[in-house]
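Page 37, continued from 36.
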């Protein structure tokens, strides 16, 4: 088998390589995990919670090492990598502190006498995870699944195999059953067989629509629960009365954090024609100040893109849109030399039908579309196959709330940055997937809500 290569995006050079798991190794992993989960499900909730707290401690103690690994494998600026590790520790602590109460037996109002609902684990949960947040995407799914009594098998993107194995290390030696959390190092074409293995009882995927459809098809054939968190083309609506200082300041982070490689980042800026020129001028000025360079330097705001093919795909979207009439008002594009750097760009005059409007744009490019009032803004916001997130910027809070209520998305914010939060469910509609992560909803995705009807006194 050809090894998986870890390529440093800042240099374009191979850093290390990893051997793929053989079929015999996969079989051994699944057998060990089944035994571990059968033991783990009998741990008390407070014991499982304490294990999660130890995971959080491990992450905090080795934050610098893990952050440097993230940056080395996918190019994220070191400050953002450190913030990612902090979020991971926080999500473990959140479920340790609040998860047991969420999983407590409940008696619905009006239920028959002696009836109650208990929440039991399903078994092994297979997670197919992406490269853009190689620790956070995993732990926001793993922490609740593990607390609920499941085992967690992570098939990560090949380019961040080092991160995947480091996560396995971070979750070892914390008091969980041995083998409860494992990294699975296999190619995409071998995933369906793992999904269909009877020891795997549920699947979670974060990634592209194509990957989600393939995994959901395999899960459907095997009649297994599946949660999909797919892409987005999030609208960022700026109305004529918006606080432009706040909107532009937030827009820069919302679009260019992680070099724009974020599923829930703002991707389509729908700006009222009365303020579009001023918005464009302010945005280009602010984006032009972002420092691009070595992602290990603390002052860097824009690192390289994660892979060469991703940079090429982004540039095709930009060039295709320019050919259709878009204007580049902040000059950007691939940077010659080593690494996969793409200088941030801002496009204006973007219209429906252009690649940067119709497709998910994963990279440091902002596209601005002029709209004629709230009605057209709402129409264009919903004119997409995706439905992950959105934001509305206006001083008219009643109007903002009304628009938010009519946007087809799983997450909508008014006058604030949209981001995932352990306290709240996260997910999308339409081609952005189904099911939820985080919050109580995410915790209950991979449990059996068993109804018990017991005699009095039982």
């Amino acid at each position: 088998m050809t090894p998986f290569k870890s390529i440093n995006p800042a240099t374009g050079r191979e850093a290390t390589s990893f051997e793929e798991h053989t079929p015999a190794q996969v079989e051994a992993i699944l057998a060990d995990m089944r035994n571990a989960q059968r033991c783990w499900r009998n741990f008390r909730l407070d014991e499982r919670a304490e294990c999660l707290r130890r995971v959080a401690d491990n992450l905090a103690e080795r934050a610098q090492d893990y952050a440097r690994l993230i940056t080395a494998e996918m190019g994220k600026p070191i400050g953002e990598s450190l913030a990612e590790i902090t979020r991971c520790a926080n999500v473990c602590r959140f479920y340790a502190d609040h998860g047991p109460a969420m999983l407590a037996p409940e008696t619905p109002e009006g239920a028959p006498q002696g009836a109650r609902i208990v929440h039991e684990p399903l078994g092994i949960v297979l997670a197919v995870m992406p490269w853009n947040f190689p620790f956070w995407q995993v732990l926001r799914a793993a922490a609740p699944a593990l607390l609920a009594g499941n085992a967690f098998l992570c098939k990560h993107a090949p380019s961040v195999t080092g991160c995947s194995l480091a996560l396995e290390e971070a979750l070892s030696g914390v008091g969980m059953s041995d083998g409860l959390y494992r990294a699975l190092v296999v190619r995409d074409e071998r995933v369906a067989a793992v999904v269909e293995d009877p020891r795997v009882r549920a699947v979670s995927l974060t990634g592209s629509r194509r990957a989600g459809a393939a995994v959901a098809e395999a899960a459907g054939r095997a009649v297994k629960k599946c949660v999909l968190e797919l892409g987005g083309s999030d609208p960022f609506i700026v109305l004529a009365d918006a606080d432009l200082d706040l909107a532009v300041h937030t827009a820069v982070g919302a679009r260019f954090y992680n070099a724009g490689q974020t599923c829930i980042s703002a991707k389509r800026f729908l700006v009222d024609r009365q303020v579009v020129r001023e918005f464009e001028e302010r945005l280009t000025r602010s984006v032009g100040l972002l420092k691009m360079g070595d992602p290990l330097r603390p002052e860097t705001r824009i690192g390289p893109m994660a892979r060469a093919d991703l940079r090429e795909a982004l540039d095709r979207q930009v060039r295709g849109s320019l050919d259709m009439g878009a204007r580049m008002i902040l000059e950007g594009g691939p940077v010659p030399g080593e690494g996969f750097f793409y200088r941030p760009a801002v496009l204006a005059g973007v219209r429906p039908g252009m690649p940067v409007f119709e497709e998910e744009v994963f990279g440091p490019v902002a596209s601005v579309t002029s709209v004629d009032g709230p009605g057209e803004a709402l129409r264009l916001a919903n004119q997409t196959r995706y439905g992950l997130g959105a934001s509305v910027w206006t001083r008219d809070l009643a109007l903002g709330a009304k628009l938010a209520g009519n946007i087809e998305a799983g997450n909508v914010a008014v006058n604030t940055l949209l981001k995932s939060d352990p306290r709240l469910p996260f997910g999308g509609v339409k081609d952005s997937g189904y099911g939820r992560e985080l919050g109580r909803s995410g915790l209950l995705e991979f449990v059996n809500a068993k109804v018990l009807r017991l005699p009095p006194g039982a």
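The radius of gyration is 23 Å. Flag for discussion at group meeting. Residues 234-414 form a domain with the Aldehyde Dehydrogenase; Chain A, domain 2 fold (CATH 3.40.309.10).
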